[in-house]
Recover the amino acids of this structure.
């Protein structure tokens, strides 16, 4: 158990010394709420976005990751009232108000992708949590909701998890329930999958369990977080490539395809290690393969897994026919409960097959990098030596995302290259990739010069062409420190 979600009485509890800057935002939210619903909100719930420092695309394979919460967050104002769920946004032009029935069993309308679908995921998840963990489930009732989010959308900084976690806390708080952080993280992660992305649990876990001043090693099954103190001279700069990564819409060709490829890799490795096709088919993640490798090769650990990958998985993409012959069943039968994965199989039939060896190699190598990153932070080397090691690890992660996991894109490549030219010790994509943000490691004292230089080399032409605006630059390129996790605010 990670402890109860904090209920705070003042902004400083969440935002520390920066609280003063947040007052006007809460006022704006409060006044939008009272204008729309002619009443004051009962409380607020907030949840931050995140930047992942190391451990990309391995959370859904059961492996630990190492993100930090950022100061950009989503705030939800809530009050019980009426007999419907009315979901509004302070930016009502971009995000239209939507109204739903209060039945928590209703389906999320995946065919019509809308921002409010994320609220519906959270609403369903809140009731699922209550049913699983609480003795008394409250009667559903009408809720009035006003949202104010500043985590850039499609930017790889987990705007969707920030919205799902804050909404889930708002629903629970409106019903007078305080839940455990790790329970909310777990149910929010499951609930977000209702939009059709088979994502892991990193984003929701760090949003719930982030902490001012420290990054976190997040581990799964059960979800838990431990502190990672970053070297004092390390500054992480987030830069948006301006290529929008629409995770949900592109899922069958990108994110969900990778999840399917990893599971198929785990199944094919298990089969090659001597299990029956039937036993192999029950394997879910690459982490599940670790004990089987240890048993078969006589040596435990990730290096043995990598040895097994090289020995048992071939480099050429696997075809449907090849996999079905080996497993003795149609691939669809592995995914009967997951329409999102069935869609992947359908789309992949016309695509180039499944690259199992490359994806598995990335996952095991990336987990080694997570463990090494943490060991460097925990170790006793000088701060400068620590920076050099972290930079090497982060660059290797990016290289692997490009070459083995194929989740980069031309804009991310240009941005990471220019970031290194501008003085970053390392620069890598963060989050799912295929657009969105990069995270670069800088030595303290080099940041201003870096920001100016990257602005000139990457952003100036994009400002001139109207791709982004001068006044948006603070949201597009900024240094970030570990910030607080989610909370309910009674202010
Ligand atoms: C997205 C998902 C996470 C994780 C990352 C990639 O952010 O939501 O669960 O898989 O991509 O590391």
């Amino acid at each position: 158990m990670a402890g109860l979600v904090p209920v705070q009485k003042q902004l400083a509890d969440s935002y520390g010394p920066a609280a003063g800057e947040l007052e006007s935002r809460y006022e704006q939210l409060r006044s939008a709420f009272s204008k729309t619903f002619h009443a004051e909100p009962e409380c607020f719930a907030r949840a931050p976005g995140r930047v992942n420092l190391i451990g990309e695309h391995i959370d859904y394979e059961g492996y630990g990751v190492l993100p930090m919460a950022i100061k950009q967050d989503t705030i939800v104002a809530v009050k019980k009232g009426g007999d419907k769920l009315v979901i509004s946004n302070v930016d009502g032009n971009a995000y239209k108000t939507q109204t739903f029935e209060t039945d928590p069993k209703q389906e999320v309308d995946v065919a019509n992708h809308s921002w409010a679908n994320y609220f519906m995921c959270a609403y369903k998840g809140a009731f699922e949590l209550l049913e699983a963990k609480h003795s008394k489930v409250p009667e559903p009732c009408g809720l009035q909701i006003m949202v104010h989010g500043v985590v850039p959308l499609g930017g790889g900084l987990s705007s969707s998890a920030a919205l799902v976690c804050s909404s889930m806390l708002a629903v629970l708080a409106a019903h007078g329930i305080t839940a455990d952080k790790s329970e909310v993280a777990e149910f929010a992660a499951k609930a977000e999958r209702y939009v059709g992305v088979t994502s892991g649990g990193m984003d929701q876990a760090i949003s719930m369990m982030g902490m001012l001043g420290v990054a976190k090693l997040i581990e799964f099954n059960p979800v838990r977080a431990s502190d990672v103190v970053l070297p004092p001279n390390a500054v992480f700069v987030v830069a948006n490539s301006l290529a929008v990564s629409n995770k949900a819409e592109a899922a069958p060709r990108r994110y969900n395809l990778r999840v399917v490829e990893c599971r198929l890799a785990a199944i094919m490795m298990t089969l090659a290690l001597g299990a029956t096709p039937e036993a192999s088919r029950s394997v879910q993640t690459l982490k599940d393969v670790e004990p089987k490798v240890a048993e078969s090769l006589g040596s435990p650990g990730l290096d043995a897994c990598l040895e097994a990958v090289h020995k048992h998985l071939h480099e050429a993409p696997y075809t449907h026919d090849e996999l079905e012959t080996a497993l003795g069943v149609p691939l669809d039968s592995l995914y009967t409960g997951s329409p999102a994965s069935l869609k992947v199989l359908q789309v992949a039939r016309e695509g180039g097959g499944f690259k199992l060896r490359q994806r598995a190699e990335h996952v095991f190598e990336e987990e080694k990098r997570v463990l090494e990153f943490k060991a460097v932070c925990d170790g006793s080397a000088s701060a400068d030596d620590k920076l050099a090691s972290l930079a090497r690890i982060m660059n290797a992660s990016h290289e692997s995302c490009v070459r083995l996991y194929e989740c980069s894109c031309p804009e991310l490549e240009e941005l990471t290259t220019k970031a290194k030219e501008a003085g970053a010790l390392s620069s890598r994509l963060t989050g799912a990739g295929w657009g969105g943000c990069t995270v670069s490691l800088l030595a303290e004292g080099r940041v201003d010069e870096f920001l100016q230089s990257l602005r000139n080399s990457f952003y100036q032409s994009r400002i001139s062409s109207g791709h982004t605006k001068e006044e948006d630059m603070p949201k597009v390129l900024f240094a970030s420190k570990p910030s607080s996790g989610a909370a309910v605010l009674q202010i």
The pocket of alpha-D-galactopyranose is lined by residues 52, 56-57, 59-60, 158, 199-200, 202-203, 431-432 (CB under 6 Å). The chain has a mean pLDDT of 96. The two ends are 27 Å apart (CA to CA).
